[in-house]
Amino acid sequence: MSGATILEKAAAAPRTLTRGELAALIDWPDLDALFKAAYAVKLREIGPRVSLRGLVEFGNVCEKDCLYCGIRKSNANVRRYRMTADEIVAAAKRAKDAGYGSVVLQSGELTGEANVAFAEEVVRRIHAEAGNEFGITLSLGEQTEETYRRWKEAGAHRYLLRIETSNPDLYAKLHPASHSWKARRDSLRALRRCGYQVGTGIMSGLPGQTTDDLAADIEFFAAEDIDMIGMGPYIPHPDTPLGAGVSLTGDAAKKRLELGLRMIAATRLHLHDVNIAAATALQALAEDGRERGLLAGANVVMPNVTDTRYRADYQLYTGKPCIGEASDLCRGCMARRIKSIGEEPLWNARGDSPHWRKR
Ligand code: SAM
Ligand code: SF4
Q1: Which of 37, 48, 94, 238 has the CA that lies 20 to 30 A from 350?
Q2: Can you tell me the distance from the alpha carbon of 253 to that of 247, in angstroms, rounded to the nearest whole number?
C-alpha cells in the first residue's frame, strides 16, 4: 500500500493495520504529516481537551531490580522514603483542590499484607473524602488478583502496569531472571477481570529494540484490549546496570524524543479511542516535550503533586523535570502550556477512557 493510503486507512477505521503497516507508521518519513494525522484522530475522538491526573509518587522502596530503573532495589545511592497515609491523602486533596479530577498513586513494587493493607486504607480514605467523581488510578506493580480486587473495592478504578516491551526475549534482557514477562502479562488480565480500566505501555529506545518490536507493542495493546496507554522514552540512569556510562544528549536525545512521539502518533492512529498520556519522560528530553506529545495524539498529562521534599528521591532516570516546583506553580505552568497549543484542560473530571466507556 502506498504511503499516503496507510495514513488514510489508519485514520478511517481503528485497528485495521498490519504489523508491517504499523512499522511503516512508526518510521514515517514526513513527521509533520504523521503527527497531524494522529492529532486529527485525537480531535475527532476526544475533542480539544486534556485530562489531568495529579501524580503522587508516594514511595521509592521497591522489591524489584529492573535493570533500567533508578529506584531499583540494588541502587544503594537512593535515599529511600515512604510518605505517610496522611501525607498521601493530603496530596490527593491538593490534586482535587487544583481541579485535576483524578489522582495517580505510584510507588516501587511492594507486596506482603502490611503493604497491601496500607495502600488499601489510603485508597479507602481518598475515596471517602473525594467521592465517586474523583478518579483514583494505581500504579503499584504486579500483585495478586486478590490484592487488585481489594484495592478496587476500596475505590480505585484504573490501574497502570506497563508491559515495558511486548517482546519476552527483550524483556528478559532488561530484568533479572526472577522477573517474568508472562506474570506481568497475566497481571494485566487479572486487572481486567477485576473490572479496572486497564493501562499499559512500553519504553521506546531500549537497547536492542527494533521497529518491529515497537509495532508488535501496539499490536499487543490492541490484542489485550487496553483502555489507556502510558509510554515514554527510555532514559538512562547512571546508577543502573543498563544506564551506567551511557549518556543521552544532543542528537541522540532528540531522536529518542522523536521516537517517543512517533509511538504516540502510531498508537493513536491504530487504536483511536484510548487515553494516551504524554509521559513526564518526554519533558525530561525537551522542555516542551509534553505539549509535543499532545500534538502527536496524547490526551492526558500528569502534573506532579508529590511533596516537593520527596521529588528528588524518585528519580527513575536522569533529568526529571519540576523537581523543585511547588504544586500550585505546576498547575499554572501546565494550564498555560496546554492552552498555548489550543487545547483546554478538562477541570474537575475523571477523564475516563472513551474506549472503556464503549465497552
Ligand atoms: N513499580 C511500578 C511498576 O514498575 O509498574 C510503578 C512505578 S515504575 C517506576 C513506573 C515506570 O517507570 C515503569 O513501568 C517504567 O516503564 C518507567 N521507568 C523506569 N525506569 C525508567 C527509565 N530509566 N526511563 C524511562 N522510564 C523508566
Ligand atoms: Fe521497581 Fe517499578 Fe522501578 Fe521496576 S520499574 S525497579 S518495579 S519501581
Answers
A1: 37
A2: 9
